[in-house]
Amino acid sequence: MIRKAKSSPLLNRPALWLIAFYQFLLSPWVGRQCRFSPSCSHYAKAAFERYSFLKALILSIKRIARCHPFAEGGEDPLP
Predict the structure, then answer these.
(1) In angstroms, what is the C-alpha Rg of the chain?
(2) Is residue 3 predicted with pLDDT exceeding 60?
(3) Helix/strand/coil (H, E, C) string of the chain?
(4) Nearest alpha-carbon partner for 60 in 42, 74, 72
(5) How many C-beta neighbours within 10 Å does residue 14 have?
(6) Fewer Cβ atoms within 10 A, N terminus or C terminus of the chain?
(7) For residue 1, what pLDDT is reported?
(8) What φ, ψ does residue 43 adopt, rounded to 5°?
(9) Chain mean pLDDT for the chain
(10) Relative orientation angle of helices 9-21 and 53-66, to the nearest 10 degrees
């Protein structure tokens, strides 16, 4: 049986608030530029909802680092 890491509400909640702030206030100004599906902010939100703070942070940083104009993009679900 595979066990998933439990998310830490104490640390993950502020991260989720920051992502929501970005999605609702900043993203409309920046525009849709993410080359992946789901978008980087939705990917990060799902990571913080599913994994521990550290694992979600690492996954989110790796994903954002891969999102650039020369990236092929495409479907990239959470592991």
Answers:
(1) 13
(2) no
(3) CCCCCCCCHHHHHHHHHHHHHHHHHHHHHHCCCCCEECCHHHHHHHHHHHCCHHHHHHHHHHHHHHCCCCCCCEECCCC
(4) 42
(5) 12
(6) N
(7) 47
(8) -60, -50
(9) 87
(10) 30
Place of tokens 């891969």: 66
| Cα–Cα dist 57/74, whole Å | 21
Distance from C-alpha of 24 to C-alpha of 73, rounded to nearest angstrom: 23
Say whether pLDDT at 4 is over 60: no
What pLDDT is attached to residue 5?
56
Cut 0.70: pTM above it = yes
- Choose among 18, 15, 34, 35: nearest CA to 26: 18
